[in-house]
Design the sequence.
């Protein structure tokens, strides 16, 4: 499918990052969860958000009582359960 779409772009620039991200996600999803990428799309979107948050916070030093709440802290303590990312979400699919 991917190569078929690319044939229509002959001589044009192709943005391959999103194509390879979707392909990689499909392979991981089928291998780990036994379902297609589209079925697990919400989980992959949450994993992407979590990766961005972790990368932004990886070098921050936090002293208890002396730091402001970050977006990661707020997402982790969100009372709205659907926005909370847990390991169970990732494993259970």
Sequence:
């Amino acid at each position: 499918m991917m190569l078929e779409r690319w044939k229509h772009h002959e001589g044009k620039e192709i943005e391959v990052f999103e194509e390879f991200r979707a392909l990689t996600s499909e392979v991981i999803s089928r291998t780990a969860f036994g379902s297609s990428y589209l079925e697990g799309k919400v989980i992959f979107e949450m994993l992407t958000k979590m990766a961005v948050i972790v990368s932004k916070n990886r070098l921050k030093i936090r002293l208890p009582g002396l730091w402001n709440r970050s977006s990661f802290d707020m997402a982790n303590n969100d009372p709205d359960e659907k926005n909370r990312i847990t390991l169970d979400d990732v494993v259970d699919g």
